[in-house]
Amino acid sequence: MAEHKDRDVLQYGDFQTPPELASEVCTLLARLGVNAPAILEPTCGRGAFLAAAIDAFPSARIILGVEINADYVSEAQKRVGPWAQLEQGDFFLTDWAGVLGRDCGPWLILGNPPWVTNAALGVLKSANLPTKSNFQRLQGLEAITGKANFDISEWMLLRQLDWLKKSSGWIAMLVKTSVARKVLRQAWRQCDPVGRAAIYKVDAMFHFGASVDACLFVLPVNVGRTSFECDVFDALKADSPSGAIGFHDDMLVSDVASFFRHRHLVGHNDDYVWRSGVKHDCSKVMELVKGADGRVLNGLKERVEIEHTFVFPMLKSSDVARGRVRNDRFMIVTQKEVGEDTAGVALCAPSTWRYLIEHGQFLDARGSIIYKNKPRFSIFGVGAYSFAPWKVAISGFYKELNFMKVGPVGGKPVILDDTIYFISCRTEDEADFVLSLVRSPPYLELISAMIFNDDKRSITADLLKRISLKLVAEELRLSDRYSSYAKQGETGQFSLALGA
Ligand SMILES: C[S@@+](CC[C@H](N)C(=O)[O-])C[C@H]1O[C@@H](n2cnc3c(N)ncnc32)[C@H](O)[C@@H]1O
């Protein structure tokens, strides 16, 4: 029984808002000038927000609440009195056009939607999700959210935005801050008629016992002037914003003021290309570690004795994040470029080939589509740049902007794993120069203004590619030096150590 209850709490994201918080939010909305004659709470629970809204907006002419749990509907009805219209209903099945058709607005759609992801619902085998037919009508959720895993609340807020585009009003919801940002990105990308938004940070641990970055998200729709910016306040009580996020040059910006100071550095990197490291999806077989006794072991703890030809020193994300050079970790690199025939390994390194054949079952079991219809033992993300003797690298797994210079180890180029981004360089001088550009204050300030620290992976190749190193060099009055390196081109210049 208790187990059922816990499961329901999770699948319905059932964390009721404390009345004091609901009241503080509604008082703030009234202070901000939100003055809606029609109020709706689409997942109203036990009615904390509806009760607070009745107090804060005494002149409202219609107050509606919908909630999936029938017991909560009765409880909420008792709490708010008979004139508020409460209904038991499922968000995903409710005829919202009919509900909003009951008043011409403007509407205040407020509350606290369930904080649960479709992945978590999958684990619980719960069906508290948008239906398949909805997905199709919306041309696939990935088209809307850009990914397969999504927060239910994000989906709900995007629907609310659609409703208000046909009328007018405000969305005011307690959500994860990342959800607020995704909804904003979607609205800004679509050039929706949204006004200047606001994010007020909320202490979710204090109010809900949840360790998430949460906020009150206020989004005016068809109200006032259209804006591509959102003020960020450090608390509900804060009088002035601590900063603003926005959408400029087709990207989400975490610090609008700093972004505009350095916006002239945004541009294409024609000469230097950020690359990802090598992907193999089989560290048990493809990665080797040399112990203090000099023995080389694979991830299965087996001793490996193979030719050096296809074995390269490697660094992982954690090494690059700490700026650590090591000479005890290696990767077997079976190709010089994607798709190259691996049969050549058998000819120049028979022991390596035997090792690969003996462990073929692990490599064959790799599920990713990138290995389908490719030569056996293929890897990915490999090219001439992978074998550049010098590189400037950064980990995509860590938040810190630690750029690192990587040079050869034992006379061989160091191979970086696929969680690392890098620029390839021919010489140490060139690597020092590139490093001086990416560590310069203008570069770091601009990239910081484009990063959201609470994103799972804030540093991406896409982001790095946005800043032109040529323009950074110009700003630092280093154009001549830049040109002398850049004119040599990127790939095809390195002597590949493979097969040497
Ligand atoms: C985070 S609680 C918030 C409740 C209330 N809004 C408040 O602020 O106290 C989320 C509420 O959404 C309800 N809910 C979850 N899935 C729903 C659905 N598909 N349709 C309608 N309500 C739903 C839950 O039962 C729960 O009461």
How does this structure look, described?
This protein has 500 residues and is of the alpha/beta class. The chain is 35% helix and 18% strand. It has two domains: 2-248, Rossmann fold; 275-486, no CATH class. The strands form three sheets. A ten-stranded mixed beta sheet has the order 3-2-1-4-5-7-6-8-9-10, with helices on both faces. Helix 9 (152-166) crosses helix 10 (177-189) and helix 12 packs antiparallel against helix 19 (441-448). The site of S-adenosylmethionine (SAM) has 23 residues, from helix 3.
Descriptive terms for the model:
single chain, about 500 residues, alpha/beta, Rossmann fold, 2 domains, ten-stranded mixed sheet, five-stranded mixed sheet, 22 helices, 19 strands, about 35% helix, elongated, disordered C terminus, binds S-adenosylmethionine
Bound molecules: S-adenosylmethionine
- Main-sheet strand order equals 3-2-1-4-5-7-6-8-9-10
N-to-C span: 67 Å
CATH architecture heading of the largest domain: 3-Layer(aba) Sandwich
Low-confidence stretches: 133-147, 492-500
Count every helix, treating DSSP H or I runs of 4 or more residues as helices.
Answer: 22
- For this structure, the quaternary state is single chain
* Average of the residue pLDDT scores: 91
* Helix content range: 25-40%
Question: Largest sheet, described in full?
Answer: 10 strands, mixed
Number of strands: 19
List the domain count as a whole number. 2
Structure class: alpha/beta
Per CATH, what is the topology of the largest domain? Rossmann fold
Q: Which CATH first-tier class of the largest domain would you pick?
A: Alpha Beta
